[in-house]
Write a structure and sequence with these properties.
Length: 289
């Protein structure tokens, strides 16, 4: 097995058991409600996802912060100092400045440890879409690929890593400045549910809308059916609505019984601060996003 470490920011939303099993180093990201700040860890040690979404339901506004170079160095240097090479997968550089901060931190570390390799991959994704790319890195490492080969492999497939979301309520989008108050009120009155994707540039953009949750999930699944090209793995994430995520999982397996691996996880606070409670997302490999 190729010996290099895999690291990611906590926006990857990987389940804790996956992080432990595959020894993934997670760099926590910061978020806050007014003056109350929390670090987002996979074990939810500072605040649970349920408590976070309850605050959003109470119309509190969460703000997120990027990882700075100092935080990156503090997280990665102990491993580099011990002689390890590190592959890092990050949240989309168009959704956060964390990628640029990590590049700055990487340069400082390589000046101090010139014999080490630190490769940073901008996933141009978020949540378990980023996590899905990390899963591919784990598989590549198990196959014996080197850190350079694994980094190149991730770069070659990341624009085939599809990310589809549907948002259940518009209040969080409005309070976060993503849509206007008028659109939120009008959309809520009509029970409109946006369906979004992450495009090739790494932005979360709407591509359809439906009246009612049932129709939104139907469009989400139809889009998934049309775009799916690789049945080896599918990831599903939810924002404090596990029963609905399980229903989506069962429907996917009914439509595609040959899918090899399905991972269901939670959308954590970093993306949940923008999309709100009740969001459902599907991540998979297609021909293109």
């Amino acid at each position: 097995m190729s010996q290099f470490l895999i690291a990611a920011d906590s926006c990857s939303d990987l389940p804790l058991d996956f992080v432990i099993e595959h020894d993934i180093t997670i760099i926590p990201m910061l978020f806050h409600f007014k003056q109350e700040a929390f670090l987002n860890y996979p074990d939810q040690r500072e605040i649970t996802n349920r408590a976070f979404y309850d605050r959003l339901r109470d119309k509190q506004v969460a703000k997120t912060s990027q990882i700075n170079p100092k935080d990156f160095i503090a997280a990665i240097e102990p491993f580099v100092k011990e002689g390890n090479d590190v592959l890092v997968v990050t949240l989309s550089s168009l959704l956060s400045g964390s990628y640029n901060s990590m590049v700055i931190g990487r340069q400082e570390l390589l000046e101090k440890y010139p014999d080490r390799k630190i490769i940073i991959v901008d996933s141009l994704l978020a949540s378990l879409g980023e996590g899905f790319l990390i899963y591919q890195a784990v598989l590549a490492r198990k196959e014996g690929k080197s850190i350079e080969e694994t980094g190149a492999f991730l770069e070659s497939i990341k624009l085939k890593d599809c990310a589809l979301f549907t948002v259940d309520e518009l209040g969080t989008l409005q309070r976060g400045g993503r849509i206007s108050l008028t659109k939120a009120i009008f959309g809520s009155f009509l029970n409109m549910k946006p369906i979004l994707k992450i495009d090739d540039s790494g932005r979360l953009v709407p591509f359809a809308k439906a009246r009612g949750r049932k129709n939104a999930i139907s469009i989400l699944l139809e889009t998934f059916d049309n775009k799916l090209q690789d049945e080896r793995a599918v990831f599903i994430s939810h924002a404090d609505n596990p029963d609905e995520a399980e229903n989506v999982r069962n429907e996917i397996l009914k439509r595609h019984p040959n899918i090899g691996t399905i991972v269901v996880g939670e959308i954590g606070p970093i993306i949940g601060a923008h999309t709100g409670p009740g969001t459902i997302a599907i991540f998979f490999l297609g021909d293109q996003r």
